[in-house]
Structure formats: structure tokens, C-alpha cells
Amino acid sequence: MDLDGELSVHGRSILERHCVLLMCHVSATTKILCGGGHMKIAVIYHSETGNTRQMAELVGEGCRKVEGVEARCMEVGEVDDDYVTESSAVIFGSPTYMGTCSWQLKKYLDSQPTGLADKLGGVFASQNWPGGGGGSFVEMTMIAAMLVHGMLIYSGGTVSGQPYLHFGAVSRKAPDEQLYRERCLKLGQNIATKARELFAGP
Ligand SMILES: Cc1cc2nc3c(=O)[nH]c(=O)nc-3n(C[C@H](O)[C@H](O)[C@H](O)COP(=O)(O)O)c2cc1C
Questions:
Q1: Ligand 1 centroid vs 64 CA: distance in angstroms?
Q2: 34 closest CA partner among 77, 76, 86
Q3: Beta bridge partners of 123
Q4: Atom of ligand 1 nearest to the CA of 172
Q5: What is the pTM of this model?
Q6: Could you tell me the end-to-end alpha-carbon distance of the chain, in angstroms, rounded to an integer?
Q7: Residue 49 Cβ contacting ligand 1 at under 6 Å
Q8: Cα angle at 193 between 61 and 144, to 5 degrees?
Q9: Which of 108, 90, 118 is CA-nearest to residue 188?
Q10: Distance between CA atoms of residues 113 and 83, nearest Å
Q11: What digits encode the pLDDT tens for the residues 13-57?
Q12: CA–CA separation, 105 and 131 (whole Å)
């Protein structure tokens, strides 16, 4: 007990020690959530039954493989506009609905979202059937809107090696198979690597 009646340990008040511990905890948690990085990437997706969400999580994981990059996945109904504005790249994912991207994702792209211009952009899609529209029409529908918003579209392409990415990453249903997992991880990694090249500065 101090002279002024405050409990203390090794010369520090209990309150002071709690504050120090809390600050350490917040800092460690922030590092885990943000990957300890400085460049932000937003992954915006729509998913009703969880397949596209699983793809989004892998794409985010792929982004975080690149040093200095943090990534956050956001459901299309819960987009953090400030985070998008602060991001260097924005990656969109949608399920295939009637051969094209879902109306929920398209609604977001049609509603004048802020902060997309001049950012690197990528896409991914989940479909039920080979040739179901995901690998072509869903991705191109999103890409068209992203171009209109002034984004720079990128996937890494087949030149970045296997598993090949064409317009973006495509999975049949959830990315359970290794090929689909790897495509998602690779898309995130390719976009993050290019974003650093373009925007990280010297
Ligand atoms: C209304 C509706 C339309 C769909 N249309 C197609 C389609 O045209 N082609 C296809 O391959 N899959 C189609 N599907 C299947 C979904 O794209 C597929 O199940 C996807 O993995 C769902 O993603 P989610 O779990 O993220 O919601 C459709 C599903 C729904 C609900």
C-alpha cells in the first residue's frame, strides 16, 4: 500500500500495471488482425450458403502471405467504407446466380461505392457447374463495373504459373479441393504482391 493509500506492486500502481498490460494486449491483437502490416486490402464478397465466404477467407490469407500487407474480408452488406478508402486493392467475390454475378454484389457495384478509383482490383467466383458462368460471365460482370469505377484489374494470369488464374479464382461450390484452395490463395498473393510493387513506394 502506498502512502496515499493506492495499491502498488514494484513501484507501479495496480491501475498503471493494468493499463500497460491492456496496451500490450491491444497492440498484439492489432498485429494478429492486421498481420502487422501497413498496406490494406479489402475483400468484399456476397455469400448465402458460405461457399464464396470460404473463398474470401482464403483470398485474404493469400494477401497476408505478402509482408507488410493486412487484409480484411467483408460481407457485401457490411462494408466498412473507411477501410475500403484506405485500401490499396479491393477484391470482389460472388456466387453464380443464373449465369452471372449475384444481384447483391451487383447492387453494391451499381450504388456508387466510394474509394474504388485507381485501386488494384481482382475477382473470384463460386459456381455449381463447370461452364455454369462463374469462370467467365460472373467475373467479367464484376470486372466491367470495376473498370467503370476506374480500377486497375489484375489476376496475375497464367504467366504466374500453376494453378492457372484466368480472369480470377474460380471454385466449384466451396473451395474444398486443393486446386480451388490454391487458386484463392494465389489470387490474394498475386494481388498483394502487385499492390506493393505499384503503391508501396521506394
Ligand atoms: C438463385 C441461384 C441461381 C444459381 N445459378 C447458378 C448458375 O447459373 N450456374 C451455376 O453454376 N450455379 C448456380 N447457382 C449455384 C451457386 O452459384 C453455388 O451454389 C454457389 O456455390 C453458392 O455460393 P454461396 O455458398 O457463397 O452462396 C445458383 C444458386 C442460386 C441460389
A1: 28
A2: 86
A3: 92
A4: 21
A5: 0.84
A6: 54
A7: yes
A8: 85
A9: 90
A10: 12
A11: 544 544 334 343 433 333 333 344 489 999 999 999 999 999 999
A12: 20
